[in-house]
């Protein structure tokens, strides 16, 4: 009787351990996929590479995610949630605070995103992710540059939204940070100057 009771008490613990192991495997596969997709063209990434990097079999990946495309979609969902959380600032935060958060995101993920942007016209899964990123950034501009848009409407408002988007876009960060070699503080200063130019204009 005692052995049976001990076995029953041990089952919940084993379930917890098994669940934790499943989660760890899931995240390990996504982490490996992130490395591969971040540094390699989408068509050159293979499930075998991801399996080797994550320490599982290709069959395990297929069983969990179905295909490379579905794995990429799940990775994009996870990373999208992470990026939104990292870029989030309290309601009413000043533009400098919001810009600092945005540029921190670019420092962490800018090179990966630039790699995706370079492939957006080649692969539909990547195009969808890049389009989503552009919509997210426009929403960021409309939220944190509201003082530039106050009192504007129609085509005039749209032009200012476009201008503020360009001033703070990843491509602008890449030009300043990677191509011209500016330090992060200098990039922030240039973007701030561009936004202040829009403010003086209005």
Characterization of this structure:
The protein is built from 10 helices and no strands. By secondary structure, the chain is mainly alpha-helical. The chain has 2 domains: 1-68, Orthogonal Bundle (Tetracycline Repressor, domain 2); 88-202, no CATH class. Helix 1 (2-39) crosses helix 4 (68-87), helix 2 (47-54) packs across helix 3 and helix 8 packs antiparallel against helix 10. The protein starts with a helix and ends with a helix.
| Share of residues in strands | under 5%
Q: Unreliable stretches, pLDDT < 50, 5 or more residues?
A: none
Radius of gyration: 22 Å
Summarize model confidence as the mean pLDDT.
91
Distance between the termini: 82 Å
Q: How much helix is in the residues?
A: over 70%
Overall shape: it is elongated
Q: Give the number of DSSP strands.
A: 0
DSSP helical segment count: 10
Structural class: mainly alpha
- Count of separate structural domains: 2
Biggest sheet descriptor: none
Q: Helix and strand succession?
A: HHHHHHHHHH
Q: Summary?
A:
The protein has 202 residues and is an all-alpha fold. The chain has helices at 2-39, 47-54, 58-65, 68-87, 95-117, 124-144, 146-149, 154-168, 170-179, 184-201.
Question: Top keywords for this entry?
Answer:
single chain; 202 residues; mainly alpha; Tetracycline Repressor, domain 2; 2 domains; 10 helices; 0% strand; elongated
Write the layout of secondary structure elements.
Blueprint: H1 2-39, H2 47-54, H3 58-65, H4 68-87, H5 95-117, H6 124-144, H7 146-149, H8 154-168, H9 170-179, H10 184-201
Helix pairs in contact: 1-2, 1-4, 2-3, 5-6, 5-9, 6-8, 8-10
């Amino acid at each position: 009787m005692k052995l049976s009771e001990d076995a029953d008490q041990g089952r919940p613990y084993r379930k917890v351990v098994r669940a934790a192991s499943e989660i760890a495997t899931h995240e390990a596969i996504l982490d490996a996929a992130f490395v591969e997709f971040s540094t390699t063209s989408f068509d050159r990434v293979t499930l075998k590479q991801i399996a080797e990097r994550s320490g599982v079999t290709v069959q395990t990946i297929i069983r969990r995610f179905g295909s490379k495309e579905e794995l990429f979609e799940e990775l994009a969902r996870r990373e999208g949630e992470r990026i939104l959380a990292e870029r989030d600032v309290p309601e009413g935060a000043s533009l400098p605070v919001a810009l600092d958060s945005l540029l921190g995101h670019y420092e962490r993920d800018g090179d990966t995103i630039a790699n995706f942007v370079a492939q957006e016209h080649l692969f539909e899964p990547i195009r969808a992710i890049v389009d989503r990123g552009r919509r997210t950034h426009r929403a960021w501009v409309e939220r944190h540059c509201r003082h530039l848009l106050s009192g504007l409407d129609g085509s005039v408002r749209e032009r200012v939204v476009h201008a503020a988007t360009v001033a703070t876009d990843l491509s602008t960060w890449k030009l300043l940070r990677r191509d011209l070699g500016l330090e992060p503080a200098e990039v922030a200063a240039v973007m701030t100057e561009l936004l202040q130019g829009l403010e003086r204009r209005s």
